[in-house]
Amino acid sequence: MTEKLSEATRGPLLDPLFQSGWALVEGRDAIAKTFSFTSFVDAFGWMTKVAIWAEKWNHHPEWSNVYNRVDVLLTTHDVNGLSALDAKLARKMDKLA
Amino acid sequence: MTEKLSEATRGPLLDPLFQSGWALVEGRDAIAKTFSFTSFVDAFGWMTKVAIWAEKWNHHPEWSNVYNRVDVLLTTHDVNGLSALDAKLARKMDKLA
């Protein structure tokens, strides 16, 4: 079952993501990062890989794309905030980038 | 060569798009539309088809996706406004949706 991150779990799960460029979003319990690629094909190719994992895990990003740039925001609507799924998808996005 | 739409060409190219749900964007010479699908797979599948045409025509949308919804904005950066390419890509998006 998906649960909102507790105070005890936030640090261990989120700190490594802050080191890799993720940041908390103002006004929402969410994390965001901008990914830049060398071309639209690379950007959308990455989105396609992420999309398959997102669907597999039934956890989808809010994201926008302009040419070689993808802005991503992750949060878990079911718990109205960050859950372990967000950290898991963020790590996957980093790994695929 | 891509040229900004003239007053004479705007109506014939844009009016049919306004009929299909496209609208002018405030503050930018651009058109926008929200596409809704029945699932993330359908939304992203549509984006993938559009992405291939966008790359083929070297004309890329500004777009964002949240689950089954895709918000699209089209404009032509090279001419700082709408060109025939935007109308062409908009028609393709409608056809593929």
UniProtKB/TrEMBL annotation, chains A, B:
Coiled-coil region(s): none
Keyword Transcription: no
SUPFAM superfamilies given in the database record: PCD-like
Record EC number: 4.2.1.96
One of the GO biological process terms: tetrahydrobiopterin biosynthetic process
Keywords: Lyase
GO MF assignments: 4-alpha-hydroxytetrahydrobiopterin dehydratase activity
Catalyzed chemical reaction(s): (4aS,6R)-4a-hydroxy-L-erythro-5,6,7,8-tetrahydrobiopterin = (6R)-L-erythro-6,7-dihydrobiopterin + H2O
Entry annotated with the keyword Metal-binding: no
Lineage top rank: taxon: Bacteria
Family of this protein: Belongs to the pterin-4-alpha-carbinolamine dehydratase family.
Protein name: Putative pterin-4-alpha-carbinolamine dehydratase
Biological classification of the source: Bacteria, Pseudomonadati, Pseudomonadota, Alphaproteobacteria, Rhodobacterales
